[in-house]
Specification:
Length: 304
């Protein structure tokens, strides 16, 4: 396994965040895989977790809630999602989306269904691609899941511009630069399954390397600035049987993005480390068709 980040001797001064697409609706073997996910959560000992492809229905308890209850630590959690458009999924009570788990109480949440470009087919238009946000211990954490196919770049480009606008709106003046006064607190953190490779315009936009619709933004791609080596593949058919069944090439499509740390007191927001995780089985089965990412972020104001 490629992770060199494990349970920490001390969390002082850092935030550890884990992200994983858990595939609890579309991928098989959920009853076994969920125990593997819990094993990774317990091993990595994160502070905040973002999960994608979470589902709940009248007959199925929320899959993120099950993980939170089964893990060793005590977790607060929140979910945001909605059902598919009519005729796409047989269970009309099902809701599909993202969840955030936190060591601390969750103070507020927001959910936004993301748009798609004109001409989207019925399936792409009918699945609720989302941005789910949660504020916990003063940190703004967002989880997202974007349109999936390599040919869906037009949809994803629209979605990342929308995400940037929504995060700016949620943050208000928290990230404003004022001459002579350092910024305080952590910048926003955006995680999830973007279904886009690092060279795509949608990821280059979030990383500050190009503009879309006349707009620019700047997030740190945690793997790019502090990855622990290798290509960082989070969808790798050579080691993951669920990924192999999709017959797609090895690629990096899951990300932890951390907002601009410039002039933040105490080095807040600096990405200290990032590793691919949940990429090899701890219990005899892989966690998902995706690997996850864990990142350590400087947080000088972390509470004791």
């Amino acid at each position: 396994m490629s992770s060199s980040i494990d349970r920490r001797p001390s969390p002082e001064g850092t935030l550890r965040i884990l992200t994983l697409n858990i595939g609890s609706l579309f991928e098989p073997d959920w009853d076994a895989r969920r125990h593997e996910i819990v094993a990774w959560i317990d091993r990595l000992d994160p502070d905040v977790i973002t999960l994608q492809e979470v589902q709940e229905s009248e007959g199925t308890p929320n899959t993120a809630g099950w993980l939170a209850d089964a893990a060793e630590a005590s977790w607060h959690w929140a979910f945001g999602g909605e059902g598919f458009d009519d005729g796409i999924w047989p269970d009309t009570s099902m809701r599909f989306g993202s969840a955030v788990l936190s060591r601390w109480p969750i103070e507020s949440t927001s959910y936004h269904r993301l748009g798609v470009a004109d001409g989207a087919d019925r399936i792409v238009a009918g699945i609720p691609w989302e941005l789910f946000g949660a504020r916990t211990q003063g940190i703004d954490v967002f989880s997202t899941h974007l349109a999936p196919a390599p040919t869906h770049g037009a949809h994803r480009q629209r979605q990342v511009v929308e995400i940037d606008r929504l995060i700016r709106s949620a943050r208000g003046t928290l990230d404003d630069l004022v001459p002579g006064r350092p910024r305080t607190g952590l910048p926003p953190i955006l995680c999830g399954d973007f279904n886009a490779e690092a060279g795509s315009d949608e990821i280059r936009f979030l990383s500050g390397f190009t503009l879309l619709d006349g707009v620019t933004t700047a997030f740190q791609d945690a793997w790019a600035v502090a990855g622990n080596g290798g290509a960082g593949f989070t969808n790798d058919w050579t080691i993951n049987p669920y990924a192999a069944a999709l017959n797609v090439h090895r690629k990096r499509i899951d990300y932890v993005f951390v907002g601009d740390p410039f002039m933040r007191s105490g080095g807040a927001g600096r990405v200290l480390a990032c590793a691919v995780v949940a990429d090899a089985p701890l219990t005899g089965i892989v966690a998902s068709d995706h690997a996850g990412l864990v990142a350590d972020i400087a947080w000088p104001d972390r509470p004791a």
